[in-house]
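Figure 2 data, in text form.
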Amino acid sequence: MTTTPLLTELTIRTRVRAHSATTACPCGAAGGATDQATTTLADRPDATVVRHAHTVAKAHAPDTTGTDLTVRLAAAAHLPRVLLPPLSPTPADLHGRLVTFWPYGTPVDPEDPDAAPWEDAATLLAHLHRSPAPTALPPMRGPAKAALAVARLRAAGPHPAAPPVLRAWSALPAWARAEAPMPDATSLCHGDLHLGQLVRHPAPDGPWLLIDVDDLGLGVPAWDLARPAAWYACGLLPPGDWARFLAAYRTAGGPAVPADGDPWPALDVPARALTVQTAARSIAKAVAADRPLDEVEQALVDACDRMG
């Protein structure tokens, strides 16, 4: 991994923050910070994330605005039983990027799919969707992220799997393609729900919490259920896992779907949009790596073909 000035300075800032937390806590809850290595968790154009001991720092995407991010941080701080609260209420500036600091939480183990916390994720979403939204909260960015994925697909150049994905995209309503306002966008939504957005805090075995406020905002709550719904529809999520997820969401009073009966009238458009988004990202990555689509990626393309 190439070390950039941003990554170098972010690493230093994270170590300093972790050390400050250690010395400020007489009980030593964050102890050992100076003895631990710093780990780069992500280094992409849209996010650079570094961990040192119990502190995590994130440099957000270059187009992130301070106003929107500050409101989203406030939302996380006011819902500490749903969203991981930040260590600071305002972002810092580093090499022209906004930076936030967070406590470390234990992520979902990708090697143990049977232990995936589907019920916990659903319950957290239901509580999030029922929570009052802060004043001036921007729109949830789910449709905008789907549109960005399709734009990257088009920029990647010709690919035999692209046409069915683009046909499925064009068949979606304008709001799902970020070309019109979302209908009835009054619920507080996460905007990018997947299992990588959950951690246990305090680590290692505290309660599950949602992380990543970059896409948080007012929107259609069904969007937050769309990825597991799409995986289920594509045959990538076992029916039992989907049933447990949906039942937990309903039990917690989630407003995205009816309390009983068929949930698909509410989920259909978001699930199709997330299928297109994931397929578009998969094809763009395959083109960049000059490799064929794998079995899961092809299943997503096939689903788009059926939708088109």
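Caption note: The CA atoms of residues 122 and 249 lie 5 Å apart.
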